[in-house]
Design brief:
Rossmann fold, 15 helices, 13% strand, six-stranded mixed sheet, alpha/beta, 3 domains, three-stranded antiparallel sheet, flat
């Protein structure tokens, strides 16, 4: 369609401006940007901003440059496409109340520009630090779209197997002998081998009981994003019993995947038996090697109605089987001095390597940034 070609040209011009500003944007990045915008609304600045930031920016220090170029390119006056984008963004801001502009701001142009930016810059930061329980439905929808673009990189571990490398500590004797025979006994150069690295498995165990109803869908959305971004990801849900939902999250459409996962969990928003569920995970999956050397992330508020002794035993065995155990408790919030108050959390705390909150988008992004460092 002519309109689509028109917007493709706009995206290409925007990438050229980024290249002029010093960002390393190649043709493949531009194609990825266009492909990312295909299922999105090309007249929505929120889609344009986050799709471009996810595909065209590869270094954190380049984000301010990207924001400046985006603001200058899409908010400059006189461009008919820009005017269309401004109208769309202003209508979205007014009807959905995604952004509240202070009425005391005397600069009308600044107000229009701020409304057009939507969830960019400081306003995106506001949503990132806003608890899921206090967000409006429109804000939750925006957060889910941002969450779908989180880049997750599980840590790697060195294996006992080796592979040919340009440098290293161990000489590759077999290759050197072959090269010497080919050169009539004269070794040409030193050849080396290096230990291979492979991704550590990531296991997400999500509490979907009634007490976690305000967070369950968002944690499952994060699990879906993690599953799409990394290869070795397993997802389990539990209330009164454990359910594996990894295959349900293989669906390409997020809403369909979450619906299938919710249907697979028999006790969604029911009771809570953390100890029995973790014990079932250790016996049925952990001992088979699923979490051996892996990162286990448990998302729960710690409100356990079962036997504390069962939870303590399960957590002790889980900590021995896995490389790291991370617990995400929404009750922690932004409190740096948080101390567990529920019996379940007090029993599990000695076996937890890292305690995060998981109550907002920033805490999920913190987990994503910490994962590569857990090697």
């Amino acid at each position: 369609m002519p309109e689509h070609a028109r917007f493709v040209g706009v995206l290409v011009d925007f990438a050229s401006e980024l290249r002029i500003a010093g960002l390393a944007v190649g043709s493949g990045d531009v194609l990825t940007y266009c492909a990312a915008m295909t299922p999105l609304d090309p007249t929505d600045l929120l889609d344009l901003y986050w799709a471009g930031r996810a595909t065209l920016v590869t270094r954190r220090e380049n984000i301010p440059i990207y924001d400046e170029v985006f603001r200058r390119f899409f908010l400059a006056a006189g461009d008919p496409v820009t005017e269309l984008l401004m109208i769309k963004a202003l209508v979205t801001a007014e009807t959905q109340s995604v952004l509240q502009v202070p009425a005391t701001d005397p600069d009308g142009d600044a107000r229009q520009e701020e409304a057009a930016l939507g969830l960019m810059a400081s306003d995106a930061e506001t949503l990132r630090h806003k608890s899921f329980t206090s967000c409006t439905p429109e804000e939750l929808a925006a957060l889910r779209r941002i969450m779908a673009r989180i880049r997750l990189t599980p840590p790697r571990r060195r294996t006992r197997r080796t592979a040919a490398a340009r440098s290293g500590r161990a000489p590759d004797l077999r290759r050197m002998v072959r090269e010497s025979l080919r050169m009539q006994g004269e070794p040409a150069e030193m050849l080396w081998r290096r230990r291979k690295a492979r991704l550590r498995p990531l296991i997400l165990i999500l509490d979907v009981s009634g007490s976690m109803a305000d967070y369950s869908r968002h944690l499952l959305q994060f699990a879906y994003s993690a599953k799409r971004a990394a290869a070795r990801v397993e997802v389990f849900c539990f209330g009164t019993r454990l359910t594996r939902v990894t295959r349900a999250l293989d669906h390409r459409r997020p809403d369909a995947a979450l619906e299938l996962a919710a249907k697979a969990v028999f006790d969604w928003e029911g009771g809570t038996r953390i100890g029995a569920s973790l014990d079932a995970f250790v016996k049925d999956w952990g001992r088979r090697g699923l979490c051996r050397g892996g990162i286990v992330v448990i998302c729960s508020d710690g409100l356990d109605r079962g036997d504390p002794a069962v939870l303590a035993t399960a957590m002790e065995r889980l900590s021995r089987l896995s490389h790291r155990v991370v617990w995400m408790n929404p009750h922690k919030g932004d409190n740096a001095n948080f101390r567990p108050s529920t019996l379940g959390m007090m029993v599990a705390a000695p076996h937890v390597d890292l305690l995060l909150s998981g109550h907002d988008l920033s805490s999920l992004e913190e987990l994503a940034s910490l994962l590569p460092k857990m090697s």
